Amino acid sequence: MLIDKIHLTVQGGRGGKGCESYNHRKDHKRVPNGADGGGGGSVIFRASHNAPGFDRLKLKQHLEADSGEHGSSDNKRGSQGKDLIVLVPIGTSIYRRENHLAIRDLQREGEEVIVARGGRGGSGNIGDKTATPGEEGERIEVELEFRILADVFLVGLPGSGKSSLLHRLTRAPVEGKDYPFATRSPVIGVYSYDDYKQINFCELPSIFEGSTDGRGLGTDFLRHLARAKLIIFMVDTTAKFSATEIEGLNALRRIVYEHDPVFRQIPNAAVVNKIDLGKDIGKVQEDLQGSGQIYFLISVKTGEGVESLLKFIQERIEEKGHA
Length: 323
Ligand SMILES: Nc1nc2c(ncn2[C@@H]2O[C@H](COP(=O)(O)OP(=O)(O)OP(=O)(O)O)[C@@H](O)[C@H]2O)c(=O)[nH]1
Ligand SMILES: [Mg+2]
Fold this sequence. Notes:
Layout: E1 5-11, E2 22-24, E3 30-32, E4 43-47, H1 54-58, E5 62-64, E6 84-88, E7 92-96, E8 102-106, E9 112-116, E10 139-146, E11 152-156, H2 162-170, E12 187-193, E13 197-203, E14 230-236, H3 245-259, E15 268-273, H4 282-291, E16 295-297, H5 306-319
Parallel strand pairs: 1-5, 4-6, 11-13, 11-14, 14-15, 15-16
Antiparallel strand pairs: 1-10, 2-3, 4-9, 7-8, 7-10, 12-13
Bound molecules: guanosine-5'-triphosphate and magnesium ion.
Residues 162-163, 182-183, 203 line the site of magnesium ion.
């Protein structure tokens, strides 16, 4: 199972001690010549495609940057402690653990943030200053949360055909399975078109009326929707997990919007799949029209309706200044 929430203690390196020392001159005068200590290194989080998963980070719960070197006599400054650069997956949000305040969302390759600064190095006694010890580095408890960055999320009833659609559009290595809840964690697929444009799709595990009571696979993964540009709510004409297609769609929306009311603002559309099965869809169509939602009747199996769904998705995502 993908770990996507962890907490860590991070600490900047200690500043090096300032040095107290004297040059004993021939005339018996003592001239202070102790140098400053170097500053401690900082802990920096950097987003990278090459970052290991959170499960690896979790093994080292305490991350600390190098201390600065102590100053020494003859005015030799201590060198700066090395920063500790921690690679995290793109899509990581960093919070202060005590109050859950956001420190930063790292969303692009190479984007970084200093999470704990190193302590300042102490002063040496040169120039008649008082020698001081180095400061402690900043220490902070952080929480890291990973959210998938995709444009379009497929949210649907069990067995409605999300994996089949994802595979058809993106060739993602998933396939439709003839049993429900086959997809147990989010799956990503990339749809490329017009030579250089791309749309990232993500299939979330299925939800249904019982999910909010913890049945099926729960609803925790819905938090990945936070940065969705478009949500596709998907049901199918077999209506095995709801009394009717419309009720299925209503249930999906209710669960998603109850999970986080902010998700209401995300553009969305309804998809009723498996129209090849010969069920009379006149009533469904009527209800959908009456409800005012944007909807598509499709068959992933025969391809019917898939083109117009795709066209709609492209337009929506391009409008949002992406792809
Ligand atoms: N007849 C028909 N069957 C379909 C269609 N689309 C998908 N299926 C079948 O429906 C079953 C479920 O499809 P999936 O793509 O696995 O559905 P899912 O929504 O990903 O399901 P889970 O992730 O397991 O909850 C598979 O046996 C598919 O072959 C369709 O358009 N028509
Ligand atoms: Mg699936």
